[in-house]
Amino acid sequence: FTSCFSDTGTKPPESGIFGFMINISALLGVITMYIRYLLIEKQNESSHFVRSSCNIFSLCIGLMGCIGMGIVATFQELSVPSVHDIGALVAFGSGVVYITLQSIISYKSCPQWNTYFVCHIRMAISVISCIAFIPMIVFASQISMTKIDWTPGEKDYTYHFVSAICEWTVAFGFIFFFLTFIRDFQ
C-alpha cells in the first residue's frame, strides 16, 4: 500500500496497460450505471419511490466520475500532474457522491425492490468511502513533490502513505458497491 493507485501506471509499458484498463473500467462503469438507471426507471413506473430527476442526476454524477477516470488514464501522473489530479478528484469525488445517492435510492425502494440488508451494506460502503475520501484529499494536498518511489522517512512520505491507503479504500469501495448490484440485475 505504499504507492498510489496511479503509480502503477506511470512508466512504459505499464502506462499503456494501465491506461487501457482504466478506460475499460470506465466503460464498464458507464454501462453498469446506465443499466442501473434504466432499472430504477422501470421499477419507478409502478412504485414511484424516487423522482426521475434524482435518478437522472445520479446517473450524470456517475458519468462524470467515469470521465474523470478517462482523464486519469490519459494524462499520466508524472507527465501532466495537474490534469491527472483534477481527473482523479472528479473520478473519486463523483464516485463517492454517486454511491451515496444510489444508497439513498436503494432505501427508498425498500422493501419492494431491495432488502434492508443490501441497503445497509450499500450505505456502509458509502460511509466508509466518504470517510476515506476526505483524508485522501487532505493528505494528498500536503504532498509537495510528485514522485514514484517513496521510502519511509522521506519528506511527505507519511502524507503519501495515508493518502494512498485512503485512495485504495475508496477504489475498493466502488468495486464492492457495484458488486451489490448483482442481485438487482438478475
TrEMBL record:
The chain crosses the membrane at residues 16-35, 56-74, 86-105, 117-139, 159-182. Keywords: Membrane, Transmembrane, Transmembrane helix. GO terms for biological process: regulation of autophagy. The keyword Transmembrane helix applies. It comes from the Eukaryota. Residues 6-186 form the CWH43-like N-terminal domain. InterPro entries: CWH43_N, DRAM/TMEM150_Autophagy_Mod. Pfam families: Frag1 (PF10277). One of its GO terms (cellular component) is endomembrane system. It is a multi-pass membrane protein. It is found in: Endomembrane system. Belongs to the DRAM/TMEM150 family. This is DNA damage-regulated autophagy modulator protein 1.
